[in-house]
Amino acid sequence: MTFRSVTNYRETFKVILRKMHVSQKAFVNGQWVAAASDKVFEVTNPANGEVVGTVPDMDIQDAQNAIQAAATAFETWKFTTAKERSQLLRKWFNLLNENQESIAKIMTAESGKPISEALGEVHYGNSFIEWFSEQARNVRGEIVESPVTSKKILIDHHPIGVAALITPWNFPHAMIARKAGAALAVGCTCVVKPSEDTPLTALAIAKLAEDAGIPKGVLNIVTSDRHNAPSIGKLFCESPLVAGISFTGSTLVGKILYKQCSSGVKRLALELGGNAPFIVYNSANLDKAVEGALGSKFRNCGQACVASNRFLIQDEVFDEFVTKLIHRVKQLKIGNGVEPNVNLGPLINETQFNKVSDLVNDAISKGAKVLTGGKPASHIGKLFYEPTVIIDITENMKLYHEEVFGPVINIIRFKTEEESLKIANGTQSGLAGYFYSEDIKQIFRVSRKMEVGMVGVNEGIISTAEAPFGGIKESGLGREGSHRGIEDFTYIKYTCLGNLE
Ligand code: SIN
Questions:
Q1: Does residue 176 line the site of ligand 1, with CB under 6 A?
Q2: Which residue, among 400, 396, 401, has the nearest Cα to 366 in the 3D structure?
Q3: Is residue 171 in contact with ligand 1, taking CB distance under 6 Å?
Q4: pLDDT reported for residue 1
Q5: Which domains does the chain have, with CATH numbers?
Q6: Least buried of 13, 14, 217, 381, by fewest C-beta within 10 Å?
Q7: What whole-number distance in Å separates Cα of residue 184 and Cα of residue 84?
């Protein structure tokens, strides 16, 4: 899908926003509402700084209204049957599918993601709604053998209540779908706080939820600018009407939410930063490893928690791998995501751009060698950064330790498997890890020893609705997607039936 011209694109985009009623309003209690203060903020396209929409700048009073609406709706929604919830989610999924191109265009305009990638994310996000529409009817209890004949032990799952979902800008549709799909499927109601960088996608998918007939108050979207986000997050953590929080974002913010949730001993699911190793062993198929590296690193311009962040290449194959990699990286096209065949868009904002530049400059100043890229692509726009390959990374460089969240492949050379695992596991993060090897014993050995929640063996893209997504160590708590994705939104109730004789 491409646009004939950027001008044409702008017109198309405005029509889409109008058609989808995504304009200056958030969605609370089944109504499209302004902030109580009437304040709004602008959403800009990171590719060119153009304002693409304005949305309410809500504060804790608005968030409180949304929580109250969700709490009221919960009293009814929790008693709907699994079949009813499944059918509504299926209707939502159908509408999301019918409108996939419009959602993708909105997403590209506010996130900068190339249109083909935005469409890919829409498919990915929709797949969670489809998956959880099926899972809704698959939540099963148990009857466990009792130690005495006069009692029966029943175990079943109940919705926790109002779930507050705080979602990031890097996957503006899929992260809402992965959380809300699970929460709604089991009978929770939701208040979603999308990122201030990408609220339009959230509002578009909420509009389709409304059209699907999801009852008022069951799904609420509270938009706010950056300055109100911390107080809204705190309210979510401390409100007695909120039963649980699910957050995807930085480890720093995750830790703050973790602390704030302690006062109410609130259920908390955290999908935080990763610092994924990508290891290429001597036995690897190097062509496949190069393609895996591109997919895993450059998806969303490197702005993914599961993106490979440290490339560890074994001595014997180092030169060949790097040569093949550079050849492919040089073919990548960087540009405005609405133009044809663009592989890499801009970084989302200035903070992100400065961080990437700073990490690369720090490495260069300490002796790292740039093989391609290594600098801003300012001729395209102020948030564009060239796809970069940089070698001779050493422990004294920030790039060695920190998550870059940008299009930078930093390469470390190693000699032994033991050494590779020491480097791979030498971090407090543990979300995903990838390695390439054709040695079956090594495959089992290394996957067992990698300290992460998700392993890609000879594969750079591992995310799918059917598999559990989540990390260990400081990468988070809980699992999203898969049949386990409902666990954060349910509690287990044990009922003892006594005096049965
Ligand atoms: C993330 O990295 O933030 C989520 C990506 C995914 O679901 O694959």
A1: no
A2: 396
A3: yes
A4: 47
A5: 25-35+54-106+141-272+476-493 (3.40.605.10), 276-464 (3.40.309.10)
A6: 14
A7: 11
Average pLDDT over residues 238-263: 97
- Give residue 16's pLDDT band: very low, low, confident or very high (50, 70, 90): confident
Indicate which atom in ligand 1 lies nearest the CA of residue 307.
2
Given the CA of residue 178, which atom of ligand 1 is nearest to it?
7
Is 419 an annotated catalytic residue? Answer: no
CB environment 104-132: b (16+ within 10 A), e (fewer): bbbbbbbbbbbbbbbbbbbebbbbbbbbb
Question: What pLDDT is recorded for position 49?
Answer: 95
pTM: 0.96
CA 500 to centroid of ligand 1, rounded, Å:
50
Residue 271: active-site member = yes
pLDDT in tens, 450-479: 999 999 999 999 999 999 999 999 999 999
Residue 273's pLDDT is: 93
Q: At 415, list the tokens.
A: 């000699």
- Whole-angstrom Cα distance, residue 302 to residue 117? 13
Q: Which residues of 228-237 are buried (b: 16+ CB within 10 A; e: fewer)?
A: bbeebbebbb
Q: What average pLDDT does this structure show over 97-118?
A: 95
194, amino acid identity: P
Distance in angstroms (rounded) separating the CA atoms of residues 66 and 27: 9
Average pLDDT value for residue range 293-300: 97
